[in-house]
Amino acid sequence: MGVIGKLIGGPGAVTALGEAAKGVAEVFVPSSTRRMELSAEAQMAALRQLGEEYQHPALSWFDRMVNGLNRLPRPCLAFGTLGLFAYAMVDPEAFAKRMVGLNAVPEPLWWLLGAIVAFYFGARETYYFRTRGVVSPFAGRGSGEENAALEDWRRE
Q1: For the chain, does the N or the C end have fewer beta carbons within 10 angstroms?
Q2: pLDDT tens figures, 24-38
Q3: How far apart are CA 9 and CA 85, in angstroms?
Q4: Of the candidates 8, 47, 13, 15, which has an alpha carbon nearest to the alpha carbon of residue 133?
Q5: Angstrom distance (rounded) from CA 68 to CA 72
């Protein structure tokens, strides 16, 4: 070896110094491998959660009809807004008359409409927020899944 080898010691000391530098470096820069492992675990937890949505028993015709009606307001609002733009380009005079009519609606009625829409979407969002399961990157641990390569690596 060269001068550094004589100053530090033998090859074992150089290896130990390299391992120590690696450990210090991982404190400042996270391990890319560990980040990928956590990402994969989080993705698997999300896939498990999505799979659980289809585990429910078959619904009656009334349940399916109500679920379908509950899915209509958002697309209707979106397509209705796009339809207004198209209507304004096709028949500007009729569109202007309709907008003057909307201008005649009293302000308290607009506030009521805004409250109804806000509570409808807010209640749906709150319902889904409360009923969803917790997704954790650590959800798969302790489930009995064995990984021989990972166990060998942990023992080293």
Answers
A1: C
A2: 777 777 778 888 888
A3: 78
A4: 47
A5: 7
